[in-house]
Amino acid sequence: AKIARIQGMDAGWNEGNLTRWKQDKSHPNHHPAASLYALAKTVHYASLNLSGTARIRSIIGLAGNHREIALEEARLLVGAWRQTYPVLARFQRELTDVGTFIKSIAVSEAVQPGQLICSDWSQK
User: Fold this and answer.
1) How confident is the model over 38-48, as pLDDT tens digits?
2) Residue 63: CB partners within 8 Å, gap ≥ 6?
3) Of all residues in the chain, what percent are helix, strand and coil, respectively (each to 5)?
4) CA distance linking residue 25 with residue 14, whole number of Å
5) Which of the four pLDDT bands, split at 50, 70 and 90, describes residue 15?
6) 117 Cβ contact partners less than 8 Å away, ≥ 6 residues apart
7) Taking CA 99 as the corner, what is the angle to CA 96 and CA 104, rounded to the nearest 5 degrees?
C-alpha cells in the first residue's frame, strides 16, 4: 500500500484491495495491482540483499513487468521498505558499519583480504 501511495494512487489502493485485485484476474485493477505486488516484491528482496537504490532501480528496469523509474523514486521505495522493517534496516546498517570497520583495521594493519591475523587460534 505504501508503494501505491508513492505511485500516486488514491486511498482505495490499500492492502486488502490490492490482494483481492491481484487474485481476481477478471477485475479491471488486476494488472496494476499485480504490477505493484511485483514491484514491492522486487524492492523487498533486493533490500534484504543489501542492494542500494541505484541497483534496485536497475533491477526494476530489467524486470519484464516494471517500467523504468527515476533514482529519486527508487529512494522513496527503499525508504518505504526501511519504514516498514525498521529493525531489519538498522541491523543492516550496523552490519555495514562493522564491515567498514573491519576493512579499516585490515588496511591499517596491512592485512590482505582473506589473510588470517593470527594463524594459531589456540593461543588466543
Assistant:
1) 888 888 998 98
2) 38, 42
3) 65, 0, 35
4) 18
5) confident
6) 109, 111
7) 125
Contact 54, 74 (CB under 8 A): yes
Give the residue from 67, 77, 82, 74 showing the smallest Cα distance to 31.
67
Number of residues assigned to the chain: 124
What digits encode the pLDDT tens for the residues 48-69?
888 888 898 888 877 655 677 8
Q: Which residue has the cell 504490477?
A: 35
Taking the C-alpha atoms of residue 79 and residue 86, their distance in angstroms, rounded to an integer, is 10
Which amino acid appears at position 20 of this protein? R
Q: Which residue has the cell 588496511?
A: 107
- How much is the pLDDT for 23? 93
Residue, of 115 and 102, whose pLDDT is higher: 102
Grid cell locating 4? 501505491
